């Protein structure tokens, strides 16, 4: 039987072989080999995985051990850094740096509160035209970029109008947008601080034979919104909104320097000054009246032009706002008012030793308004030895008139004449003060 089966098997195998079909036995052998290879590869993968995990665990333990060894050093370093920062900030405070309104963060809540304040102010208070116009500027400043173009450098203004902005134009426009929003929030504090400052000024004036002079402008003399934004964009682009310390401002005028010094001592004793007295910039005493060790550090002497005043930056307690309070004598204030148009012209250039052009529209309007025949007549009465320089300046104004008041070109000779006339105005005022002693 088995021989028959063997024969049949051989016969079938011969048929498979002739047809190229592997026999059952060879198929089984090949299958077993494939299974063995697959099993070997799986074992190799498992072994590789095990080795990788062991290495990873070993490295993790080594790193953890290293971290644990370094942890005391890291903690000590962090503690030292915090202590160093605290000491540094304390030192800044002690030395008097950083006198500002602070960095004003922008939020929807702050923006909404500011809008509410301005709208209620317009609704509840009878406004003059200047205040009404200022509120229009404030409430409209965030509507479109066209209103902000005037605060950009000239090279970027055309790009904004065309819509083709370079990287520099986009950066500067974003900076102006940001500062505009910050000022929008902060300006209401300036309006409130102005009321508080004038109240303090009245108290000081009444005890020192002084007269409070309210600056021109809206909101009882608060620096205009436009002027404040110009200061931190066009004139001092690197400055922050917090650097605006003169938006709430007032001046007290005295007949004699003795009354002025008496008023200075009254302001020094106030809470508003005591809150910031550690700041070097809190007081500039151009009369050098400080006698104690604490107050001598504020003696800064007269300006090169001869101008003198006493200027405080104080922090008003109710509004928590830094404000400017100036103490001045009548004759020096009169000289300052006369000289102000010269100051406006000269500050448009960094180099007064060479010719320059004045292009700022507001300054050109100021020169046209103030530097007229009456100005020159008064200058001749309140200066000494500068008649030739005044004639040079009259020629400058004639050229300005010939341009249709559109262009003011200042030559080197005219720049020198401007400075000499300014110095003479203050020299005359100083002589007048000396006669009162």
In short, what is this structure?
This protein is of the alpha+beta class and 437 residues long.
Describe the structure.
This protein has 16 helices and 7 strands. By secondary structure, the protein is an alpha+beta fold. Residues 30-62 form a coiled coil. Keywords: Coiled coil.
Strand coverage percent: 5-15%
Structural class computed from helices and strand pairing: alpha+beta
| Major beta sheet, strand line-up | 1-2-5-4-3
Kindly report how far apart the N and C termini lie. 152 Å
Number of helices: 16
Uncertain stretches: 91-96
Mean pLDDT: 87
Helix content: 55-70%
The best one-word shape is: elongated
H/E series: HHHHHHEHHEHHEHEEHEHHHEH
Q: Largest sheet, if any?
A: 5 strands, mixed
Keywords: Coiled coil
Coiled coil: 30-62
List keywords for this structure.
5-stranded mixed sheet; two-stranded antiparallel sheet; elongated; alpha+beta; single chain; 437 residues; coiled coil; 7 strands
List the helices and strands and how they pair.
Layout: H1 2-19, H2 24-95, H3 108-124, H4 129-140, H5 154-162, H6 167-207, E1 211-213, H7 218-221, H8 225-235, E2 249-254, H9 257-268, H10 271-274, E3 283-285, H11 293-296, E4 310-316, E5 321-329, H12 330-346, E6 356-358, H13 361-370, H14 373-381, H15 387-402, E7 408-410, H16 412-436
Parallel strand pairs: 2-5
Antiparallel strand pairs: 1-2, 3-4, 4-5, 6-7
């Amino acid at each position: 039987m088995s021989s028959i089966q063997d024969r049949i098997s051989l016969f079938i195998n011969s048929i498979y072989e002739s047809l190229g079909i592997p026999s059952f036995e060879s198929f089984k052998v090949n299958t077993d080999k494939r299974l063995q290879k697959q099993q070997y590869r799986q074992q190799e993968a498992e072994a590789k995985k095990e080795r990788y995990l062991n290495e990873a665990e070993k490295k993790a333990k080594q790193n953890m051990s290293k971290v644990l060894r370094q942890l005391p050093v890291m903690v000590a370093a962090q503690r030292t850094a915090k202590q160093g920062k605290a000491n540094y900030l304390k030192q800044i405070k002690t030395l008097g740096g950083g006198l500002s309104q602070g960095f004003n963060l922008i939020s929807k809540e702050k923006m909404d509160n500011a809008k509410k304040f301005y709208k209620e102010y317009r609704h509840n208070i009878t406004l003059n035209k200047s205040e009404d116009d200022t509120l229009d500027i404030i409430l409209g400043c965030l509507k479109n970029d066209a209103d902000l173009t005037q605060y950009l450098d000239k090279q970027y203004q055309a790009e904004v109008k065309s819509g083709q902005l370079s990287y520099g134009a986009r950066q500067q426009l974003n900076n102006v947008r940001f500062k505009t929003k910050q000022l929008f929030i902060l300006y209401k504090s300036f309006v409130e601080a102005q009321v508080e400052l004038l109240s303090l000024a009245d108290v000081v004036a009444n005890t020192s034979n002084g007269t409070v002079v309210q600056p021109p402008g809206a909101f009882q003399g608060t620096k205009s919104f436009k002027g404040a934004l110009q200061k931190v964009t066009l004139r001092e682009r690197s400055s922050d909104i917090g650097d605006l310390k003169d938006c709430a401002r007032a001046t007290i005028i005295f007949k004699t320097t003795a009354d002025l010094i008496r008023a200075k001592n009254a302001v020094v004793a106030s809470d508003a000054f005591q809150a910031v007295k550690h700041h070097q910039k809190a007081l500039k005493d151009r009369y050098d009246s400080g006698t104690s060790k604490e107050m001598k550090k504020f003696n800064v002497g007269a300006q090169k032009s001869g101008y003198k005043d006493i200027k405080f930056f104080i922090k008003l307690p109710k509004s928590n706002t830094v404000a400017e309070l100036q103490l001045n004598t009548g004759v020096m204030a009169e000289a300052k008012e006369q000289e102000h148009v010269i100051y406006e012209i000269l500050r448009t250039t960094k180099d007064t030793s060479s010719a320059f052009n004045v292009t700022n529209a507001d300054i050109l309007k100021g020169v046209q308004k103030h530097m007229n025949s009456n100005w020159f007549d008064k200058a001749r009465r309140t200066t000494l030895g500068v008649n030739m320089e005044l004639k040079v300046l009259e020629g400058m104004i004639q050229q300005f008139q010939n341009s249709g008041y559109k262009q003011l070109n200042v030559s080197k000779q005219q720049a020198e004449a401007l400075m000499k006339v300014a110095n003479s105005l203050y020299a005359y005022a100083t002589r007048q003060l000396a006669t009162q002693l």
